[in-house]
Amino acid sequence: MNLDLARELSIQNDTKIVLLVIDGLGGLPHRETGRTELESAYTTHLDLLAKASACGFTLPVAPGVAPGSGPGHLALFGYDPLKYAVGRGVLEAVGIDFDLQSQDVAARGNFCTLDDGGLVSDRRAGRISTELCAELVAELRKIRLDGAHLFVEPVREHRFVLVIRGDGLSDAVADTDPQAEGVPPLPARAISREGEATARLVSRFVEEAGRILADKAPANMLLLRGFAKRPEWPSMSEVFKLRPAAVAYYPMYRGLARLVGMQALPTGPGLEDSIATLRENWAHFDYVFIHYKYTDTAGEDRDFERKAAKLEEVDAAIPSLLALEPDVLMVTGDHSTPAVMGVHSWHPVPFMMRARWTRADECGAFNETALRKGSLGTFPAVDALPLAMAHAGRFRKYGA
Amino acid sequence: MNLDLARELSIQNDTKIVLLVIDGLGGLPHRETGRTELESAYTTHLDLLAKASACGFTLPVAPGVAPGSGPGHLALFGYDPLKYAVGRGVLEAVGIDFDLQSQDVAARGNFCTLDDGGLVSDRRAGRISTELCAELVAELRKIRLDGAHLFVEPVREHRFVLVIRGDGLSDAVADTDPQAEGVPPLPARAISREGEATARLVSRFVEEAGRILADKAPANMLLLRGFAKRPEWPSMSEVFKLRPAAVAYYPMYRGLARLVGMQALPTGPGLEDSIATLRENWAHFDYVFIHYKYTDTAGEDRDFERKAAKLEEVDAAIPSLLALEPDVLMVTGDHSTPAVMGVHSWHPVPFMMRARWTRADECGAFNETALRKGSLGTFPAVDALPLAMAHAGRFRKYGA
Predict the structure, then answer these.
(1) What is the band of A97 on the pLDDT scale with cuts at 50, 70, 90?
(2) Can you tell me the distance from the alpha carbon of B136 to that of B125, in angstroms, rounded to the nearest whole number?
(3) What's the predicted TM-score (pTM) here?
(4) End-to-end distance of chain A based on CA atoms, in angstroms?
(5) What is the tens place of the pLDDT at every residue in A136-160?
(6) Cα separation, B369 vs B35, whole angstroms
(7) Which of A179, B55, B229, B362 has the most CB atoms around its CB within 10 Å?
(8) Which residues contact B99 (CB under 8 A, 6 or more apart)?
(9) Residue A379: which H helix or E strand, with range?
(10) A346: nearest CA partner in chain B
(11) Is the ipTM of this complex over 0.90?
């Protein structure tokens, strides 16, 4: 559903909607057992919930498309990820809780190694330590540019974020990262006339940085990519008339939530921390997104057993979530991360929604096989929130 | 998926994708047995393949839409058939292996019968023989036009193709075929200013042809329709980074494949010929479309038993196809042609895809009933190639 229609239909009431995102939820069968992660885990509470829910699968972006975390979450927040795209620089900046302002231009940075001929010999500078990264960033912060403020923030290993703040800046600047080795870094070129002043600032920064890093091999240069400004999107409160909050421990998910106007609540690393945070703030919000990360991490590590164990951890927290009696509870993932693949995949993602007016399904359990009997079938993830709004009585009738 | 997104996501690798199109595949139950053609045929290999595949149904164009061969195939090639429409003239020209060039304007021609009053009394001139058609065409080739080359090519019975080649020609010319009898042929009118010069050439041709055909009753006149230029579409190699080939015996399917940039490989009439051609060319291509025609012909002839027998012929060829070990194998049709209807129909088309990362289905056989348990459900045919690309590891992740 597009946001204009959602805005037209949305009304306020006193219901509560909860979205639990189990990151990288969907899986594939284990070669030996023939069972997926969800089918291998003991998930009594999730299975009971499935029996009382409308079930199916979400398609995060489009058939065959494996989404990054950005598109995967934006779709669940009701924002078409093909229309609401986040630039890499912005995602990196919000991903470290950087308070990005509307005039800022952000880029993802890599420390890299140049050989004697000035060609990139390692795009990641041998994955230097996070400590060294922080030291080098401290040096880069000494660079001064006319008419603009610079922020350089370490991320992890060879990664950092560059933010330029000033009036009239543009993100129409091409990557200096050639995305290949054996070639020189690219110059910071403007992609359009608007980008010219910003490209000059970036060139100055790169030049100064080159001088500072010259004797710091393997991190003797840097590469920048994904220049982007914070998008100005309609907020969930304006469109859906919700008071939305995010309970996420990892900065990237808090950042994504803030891009659509959610309040990001401080919380601890475990799901019990998240539910405690939810409980404490229950009165103040009517939409809460809870993020659980560790299933995805296990999937990316190709650790089938750990992913199954993490699913059991989620399962154990379900009763305390239900005790809050949300009017609509959605349990799904932002994408699949089958442990047998070890990467984000395009496979549709298990989904269930418990609410007062859901049709009874015949799914006896919450897994990739059982959910095929679900009444929701495979549907675009961007439609999950509209469905929840309807079930919460928050959509008025369309037309007379 | 639109081609811009496909272009953004596609990467090269050394996998092989095979698409086997069983023309007119889908069917309806036989009045007496209650079983469809696929359910009536003995298709051991297809059934085994279904057990190892992700299954479902494709929707060629839209719900309720029975597609012609053009849209049905273009969708499977990844091109939205509502956006990438082929003019009738072009389809006829490529359908006889005519080497249509970008400046050419092509039209479908019919020999017809005019009565003494100059009204169309038979739009098909009593379906004259193909031999007579060729003789009349030889006469028409004597017509000369200023500033343009004429090509007239016989097709079958009363059908021929007219191609006008010259600089600055346009296809903005209305049909001279009134699509009705008891009325006169229509004049060749321009639809817009660009079409004026071409309309004059067409009028001249029709006038001369009228003189030549005057004493050739029942074929004493001709009707033209579907003036069209060869579309300039992005190629599959540019968009999907594939080296694509077509193994099709019938010219129309080779022509359709060439419109999206496939190389059309010469082959024989049988499926074993096709697979031999595939085998010989295996190293040179990474996407191959194989076309099998005879199921559709049997369906259009309302010959239920022959359609079932032709399905068994396909079934027998499956092992030699599998022996090539394609990374992704899709088996489907371009549309349904239920023998009980005898025409192309709108019914979704059986589909299965075998690849390394498909989710296990519970389909025990390849037919309209069993496939309903498939994990893919009913999905747009235009999404089949994107799905195959994902399964072949040829799509990068979308967004960070």
Answers:
(1) confident
(2) 12
(3) 0.89
(4) 19
(5) 999 999 999 988 999 999 998 899 9
(6) 9
(7) B55
(8) none
(9) strand A377-380
(10) B390
(11) no
Q: Which of A90, A346, A369 to mutate to test the interface with B (most CBs of B within 10 A)?
A: A346
pLDDT recorded at residue B252:
86
- B398 to A86: CB separation less than 8 angstroms, yes or no: no
Residues of chain B with pLDDT under 50: none
Q: Which residues of A touch B357 (CB under 8 A)?
A: 28, 338, 340-341, 345, 347
Contacts of A375 (CB under 8 A, 6+ apart): A54, A55, A56, A359, A361
pLDDT of residue B95: 83
Q: Is B188 left (phi over 0), alpha (psi -120 to 50) or beta?
A: beta
Among the partner residues B357, B377, B399, nearest to A81 by beta-carbon distance: B399
Residues of A with CB under 8 A from a CB of B: 28-29, 34, 61-71, 81-82, 85-86, 88, 91-92, 226, 338, 340-341, 343-348, 368-369, 372, 377-378
Q: In this structure, what token pair is assigned to residue A137?
A: 């960033």
Strand bridging mode A105-114 / B105-114: unpaired
Flag if A86 and B399 touch (Cβ within 8 Å): yes
Within a 10 A sphere around the Cβ of A252, how many other Cβ atoms?
20
The answer to whether the CB of A94 falls within 8 A of the CB of A259 is yes
Map tokens 């029709």 to a residue. Answer: B206
Q: What is the mean pLDDT of chain B?
A: 95
pLDDT tens-digit profile of B187-236? 999 999 999 999 999 999 999 999 999 999 999 999 999 999 999 999 99
Query: Of B1, B373, B376, which has the smallest distance from its Cβ to A62's Cβ?
Result: B1
Both structure tokens of B12: 């090269």
So what's the pLDDT on residue B251? Answer: 84
DSSP B55-103: EEEEESSSTTPPP-HHHHHHHHTT--TTTSPPPHHHHHHHTTT----TT
- Alpha helices by DSSP H, chain A: 3-9, 37-40, 44-51, 69-76, 88-94, 130-140, 196-213, 236-240, 251-259, 271-280, 294-300, 304-322, 384-391
The edge-to-edge listing of strands for the beta sheet with B287-292 is: B263-265, B244-247, B287-292, B17-22, B328-332, B349-354, B54-59, B377-380
Tokens of residue A53, six digits: 């829910």
List the structure tokens of B373: 């348990």
Cα A82 to Cα A62: distance, rounded to the nearest angstrom: 9
**No. of H helices and E strands in chain B?**
13, 13
pLDDT tens for B1-19 read: 999 999 999 999 999 999 9
Residue contact B357–A368, C-beta within 8 A: no
pLDDT tens readout for residues A6-44? 999 999 999 999 999 999 999 999 999 999 999 999 999
> How far, in Å, CA of B191 to CA of B170, rounded?
10
Q: Encode pLDDT of A347-362 as tens digits.
A: 999 999 999 998 878 8
Residue at token pair 């049909």: B175
- Find the closest chain A residue to B9 by CA distance: A65
Cα–Cα distance, B52 to A214 (Å, whole number): 56
Residue A147's pLDDT is: 85
Pick among A61, A65, A302 to test the B interface (most B CBs inside 10 A): A65
What does DSSP assign to residue A277? H
Task: Identify the bridge partners of residue B306 per DSSP, sorted by sequence position.
Answer: none
User: B5–A85: do the CB atoms touch at under 8 Å?
Assistant: no
Q: What is the mean pLDDT of residues A57-82?
A: 96
- The CA–CA distances, whole Å, from A116 to A109, A206, B180 equal 22, 18, 79
